[in-house]
Structure formats: C-alpha cells, structure tokens
Amino acid sequence: MPLAWNDLATQLFGPDHGIQAEGEFLHGTARFDGMPITVVGTTGHAPIGVALALAQARVVLDTMARHPGRPLLLLIDTQGQQLRRRDELLGINRAMAHLGSAIDLARRRGHRVLGLVYDQALSGGFITSGLIADACYALPEAEIRVMRIPAMARVTKLPEALLTELSKANPVFAPGVDNYVAMGGVRALWQGDLRAALRAAMAETPVADLRAQDGAARGGRQLAAAVVQKVLDAA
C-alpha cells in the first residue's frame, strides 16, 4: 500500500518536516542533513489543472529567486492533467509547459532537482514534473503509466490483445514502476531507509540526462540512445 504523503515526509525529514498540504497541493521547506530543501508536489491523485500547475511553478520560481542553488524535491501523486473544459479554455497546455520550463530552468541554474513518485503518476502530470527532474525515483508500491492499454489501442488502432502480448516482453508497451525503471524513466526504486536513499540520490544523481543510456543498458529502450547519438553526430 502506498505511503501517505505525511508518513513519507516524516520518514524523510522527521516529524517537524515543515511541509504542508493545501488541498491537493504540497509545499514547504524541510531540512535534510542540516541543509534546507524545497519540497513541492501533489497528493490525493491530484488532477493537474491550471491553478495547481501554476502554484507548483511559483514555488520553483520563488526558490530560484530567493534561495539560489537550493535543492528541490518533487513529490508526485497525480492522475494526470485536469480533464475539464474550464482548464482547457484557460490554457492548461501552457500552464503545464510553464511548470516544466520552471523545473528545467532550475536545473540549468544549478539546483539539484529530484522527483519521487510515492503513489501514482499518470500522463502529463508526470511528464511535466518528475520526468523533467535531474532524475526521477519511485517507491516500489507506486503506479506509473502514461496510457492504459485500452487507450493505447484506440490511439494506435492495434488490438488490445496484441498490445497486451507485446507488453509482456517490451516495457515500452507496459505500465508499471518496474517497466519505467527498465526504460530509464525511473532511475531507481527507494526501499528500506528512505533517508539513506535520498542522501545517495542527492550525492550521486548525474546532471546529464542519462535516461536513454540507462534504458539501453537495462534492455527497456534498445534504440533510443543510438538514435540520439546519430542525431548528435549529424548536427
């Protein structure tokens, strides 16, 4: 069973962790090994709408402005983008792109940015947060997917039975945290001592994007790294 956000925060930072929930929005400043770290994210399988995307981006931008170089930890529990006409009319695509751009800018300015999927990560809510961090990690109980097989069948026009069969041997077609580890989207699972896992991630996570290389080494994405290298060689 996935950890509740408060239990997770307590394991990582102690009972006085300084993180608060405003509805489905998580934010605060915690201390880790004597140093401050900005924590921002979501809970309750939050759908990411315009307001929630902008609220998260505001925390990231404020951290850059007021605390240059401070690490950021993204706590991820989302059902994806908010499927509501109001948010579409307000430009949810631009709001989510703004969140992703803020996270990317923080990385470029030297902030260590880590993502942690502690419950559920679906679709655009995951793509514009954890997948843009220096690296994304997950708890073993987490659920990760971009698209269910029935939806994938509708988009690709391929039979569900074929996609189900393909998913048994190819992680690209399959949901699940282990498959995202195999593809390199999730760098590693955090198990046991979560403080030790965070400490190791803070020290060892590379700044360069190694997801394609990890996916090739783990057999989950066998062509991505080679294609990227060909593009770079041709540039």
From TrEMBL:
Against InterPro entries, the record matches this protein to: ClpP/crotonase-like_dom_sf
**Top-level taxon of the source organism:** Bacteria
Q: Which Pfam families would you find in this protein's record?
A: MdcE (PF06833)
What this protein is called in its record is: Malonate decarboxylase subunit gamma
